[in-house]
Amino acid sequence: MEKPRIVSCSPAHSEIICELGKQDLIIGKTAYCNFPKDLLKEKPTIGSWTKLNYDLIEELKPDIIITSNIVQEKIALKLKESGFSVYHSDPLVLEQIYSDILEIGNITNAKKEAILLVEKIKKELGEIETKSKTKIKRPKIYVEEWYDPPTISGNWIPELVNIAGGDYRLIKPGIRSKPISIDKLFEYNPGKIIISWCGFGKKVDIIQVLNRSGWDLLDAIKNKEIAVIDDSLLNRPGPRIVTGAKKLHEIFFNKVLV
User: CB neighbours of 212 closer than 8 A, spacing ≥ 6?
Assistant: First the structure.
């Protein structure tokens, strides 16, 4: 199919498709598909992350629907049972993100562009990693994906933290984000805390983190070494993970100002 009509239920895949120059193929997107805004603002909105307007999707008559993440597994199954062609992915490590981009290249007839994009991402992450290796000491890092309960960022985040020059032994790459054991966190005693709550963007009240009961014993809290990164730069498995890694590197090796 030369020009498949695509409904994207995945913000990351919407970004990938736009990066490949195939945004004209998107005929529907979710409310969270918000980047690049100028390329997606006129596209019909078919719902949110987990609540979709199935009647509207039916009206749009897509050739393929793209879903992602374990959260959308049931949605993907329901769409398939309704007769739609669905591409579902759930990358947990960087290599799977690269494979995902290449598959989107196949779907959108942009194989060459996808290969170049993956090479570009690898090259830029490699440059950040090389820069990180010049640093004498790696700071201990805790990245938080959710606040209630405090949830440590897993998946590909450990890889990004390592590339950016941080020490992140609290969780291994490929393990899904999960509530953190407070005892384990206190034993590790991170020197810097990165807040990247899903769906919050940069609108995070750091004061509530600083005021958590008992957390004042952590070095990161005592020294106010706590920073916010827009979750779309870390939690979306797409091209902007490079920007996220750059921001991590800057935070790791500079004083954080709360």
Answer: 221
Q: Domain count of the chain?
A: 2
Partners of 26 in the β-ladder: 6
Question: In the numeric block, which tokens belong to residue 106?
Answer: 């196949």
- pLDDT for 65-121, tens place per residue? 999 999 999 999 999 999 999 999 999 999 999 999 999 999 999 999 999 999 999
Around Cβ 37, how many Cβ atoms within 10 Å?
8
Q: Which residues contact 254 (CB under 8 A, 6 or more apart)?
A: none
Query: 99, 109, 112: which is closest to 68 by C-alpha?
Result: 99
Q: What distance in Å separates the CA atoms of residue 63 and residue 72, rounded to the nearest whole number? A: 19
Q: For 27, list phi and psi in degrees, rounded to 5.
A: -110, -5
pLDDT in tens, 133-151: 998 899 999 999 999 999 9
CA distance 59 to 193: 46
Domain of residue 82, residue span: 6-90
CATH at 233: 3.40.50.1980
